[in-house]
Amino acid sequence: MTAPNPAPATRSWYKRNEIAVTPWLFLAPAMLFFAFYVIWPIYQSIMISFYDWDGLGDATFIGMGNYVELMDDGAFEVSLWNNLKWLLFYLLAIPGGLFIALFLNQTVTGIRLYKSLFFFPFVISQVVVGLVFSWFYLPNEGLLNGVLGLVGLGPINVLGDPDLATYGIIAAGLWPQTAYCMILYLTGLNAVDPEQIEAGRLDNAKGWKMLWYIIIPQLKPATFIAFVVTIIGALRSFDLISIMTNGGPFGQTRVLSFYMFEKALSEYGFRMGYGAAIAVILFLIMLVFIAYFLWSMWREEKGR
Amino acid sequence: MRFTTKSMALALAGSTMLAGMAQAELTGDLKIFLDTSNPAPRATMEKMIGDFGALHPGLNIETTVIDREAYKTQIRNFLTADSPDVATWYAANRMTPYVNAGLFEDVSDLWAEPEIAENLSSTKGAMTIDGKQWGVPYTYYQWGIYYRKDIYAELGLNEPANFDEMKSNCQAIIDSGRACYTIGSKFLWTAGGWFDYLNMRTNGFDFHMELAAGNVKWTDDRVRATFANWRELIDMGAFLENHQNYSWQEALPFMVKGEAAAYLMGNFAVAPLREAGLSDDQLDFYQFPAINPDVALAEDAPTDTFHIPANASNKEAAREFLRYAVSADVQTEINNGDNLGQLPVNASASVDDDKFLNEGFEMLSANASGGVAQFFDRDFPAEMAAEAMQGLQEFMVIPDNLDDILNRLNKVQERVYK
């Protein structure tokens, strides 16, 4: 009694492939944007890095010339080392954030007020952080030297000393970054399973052991995110340097992103090819971390 | 045909000078981009443009004021992409990239007009590249040493005439517990000013320009002599300590509070010093003293300029605006103490009755026989200037690094002046 089905061939191509095509349709806008705003500029940067170009006239192809020059560029070396310092010391924000989060995870009267105080540095702009710390470090009037003077230590000019300045800026950057990590851990602590803590208590775990064996493993997702944002934050450091020292004294606080800006876009710069070469190096460094992040996420997905 | 209209227009222009600017009607849009973003210069420029608009009611003028620092990077974009009809910029080497890229209009025809040729000849060199002129100047200002007259009087000092007096004055100031010179070298260019003067006083204007042109090595003994003089001042403690932390504005309070006695700066420092409470009885000016008696005194006097972008759409109106901006009356008006507070470039314009403007004008017209330079970062190619100023700051903080710095600059020089 059934009516003859329409022949399969009359169904539209989309209907036949709906299951396979639909996810790609949803992904398409994102992929287009990614290709247009990420992949294409990366390709362009790599191409430009083989040219000598001032951004106005004709570009001259010089092959690896820019990279050869980078190998021999003292300022580039300084920037590279400073980037490494940023990477290492910026990670202090993770344990710092964790301990503040543990401290704030108590039930004490007024804890909301304390929490908001600790949230504060994350909310304010990096520019303001930079200004506040510049004043804090001022060689004569600054709070830091005021305090050092009280205990009889000599005035130090943190931002004016080529050996100290980078550490001074990193310390300023750690302030908001620690707050960020703290927020991540506070959220993570909400998800800690009280039954496991109870079980740990029964087994006589407390203090450090409780933290190390029971709490921290459960905070692993939060730690992973904190690690990702801190690494990326360290490699992208720019605004604090620009505000606090402008790369100085005599270029000793530059990092790769700042040096790239100076060479390519600043008042006296406009060596687009050279700047692009620096950008490519920075990209390669980031690629190492990005690959690691993607790999760990993939492993995580597979493990489930 | 063409010849006749042109000569007619010229004749018209000539007669209108007397008849009050009633010439051929200009029409269309005129887009003007300005970098004069500070309140006073901004108001001055807007008023001048308004007056120009009133003379040409058929012209639809659109003015855009861009923050001075942002302008320096944006100019590259708007000259190529969305070009205005008139844009502000700076003289000398700072305009080279745009001239070379064909982005500025050749305005040699304006400079051939007698009105401009006669009255602006002093800046013609700074506007010339490849034998052509690429813009017109609207203002310039002197550099020199601004000092606290009351401190000098308290210590019984006079304005120094030579390097020895400069050093002995300085010693007296240091002994009184002050710094001789305040300076903020965070943004580097202030150190370039010191090098300009020390080098022009030690080796003369021509040598300084040879160095700027890349014809002399940085390790040359004559350059070393300049640094040796500088080092004498550094070693005696003449400069404000920790200057690498401050911008030029942040170095002003040391002078206002009397912790430093003098400041090598451009005339634009006078306004903030007055606003901070220094009266003209306390503040005075002297020309940077001679070091080598055999060289003629030369000065820094940076010139700010108007240009017509090559892609401008209304070049006729733009030329008329340039003529207007350099005319004697307008130059007198925009440069007076209530407006820009600087020196007019037009020789027929008059200088406002301000103590510092008068002294500066006197100095530049009568006592700068060596020559007039623009400024370190305008005379030297941008890339050389950037590296060099960083080296100068390093030298001021760690003078022992001199050899290292000079070798580095040699290397940059070889690359920049290919």
Automatic annotation (TrEMBL), chain A:
Residue ranges constituting the ABC transmembrane type-1 domain according to the UniProt record: 79-293
Secretion signal span: none
Source domain of life: Bacteria
A Pfam family matched in the record: BPD_transp_1
Transmembrane segments: 21-43, 86-105, 117-138, 164-189, 210-235, 274-295
Compartment(s) where it occurs, according to its Swiss-Prot or TrEMBL record: Cell membrane
InterPro entries in alphabetical order: ABC_transporter_permease (IPR051393), MetI-like (IPR000515), MetI-like_sf (IPR035906)
Membrane topology, from the record: Multi-pass membrane protein
Coiled-coil residue windows: none
Keyword vocabulary terms for this entry: Cell membrane, Membrane, Transmembrane, Transmembrane helix, Transport
Family per record: Belongs to the binding-protein-dependent transport system permease family.
Official protein name in the record: Melibiose/raffinose/stachyose import permease protein MelD
Protein source organism: Roseobacter fucihabitans
Encoding gene per record: melD_2
Automatic annotation (TrEMBL), chain B:
Residue spans crossing the bilayer: none
Presence of the UniProt keyword Signal in the record: yes
Gene3D superfamilies hit by this protein: Periplasmic binding protein-like II
Keyword Protease: no
Protein keywords: Signal
Signal peptide positions on this chain: 1-24
Top-level lineage group: Bacteria
Compartment(s): Periplasm
PANTHER family assigned to the protein according to its UniProt record, in alphabetical order: ARABINOSE-BINDING PROTEIN-RELATED, BLR3389 PROTEIN
Protein family (similarity comment): Belongs to the bacterial solute-binding protein 1 family.
Protein name: Uncharacterized protein
Organism: Roseobacter fucihabitans
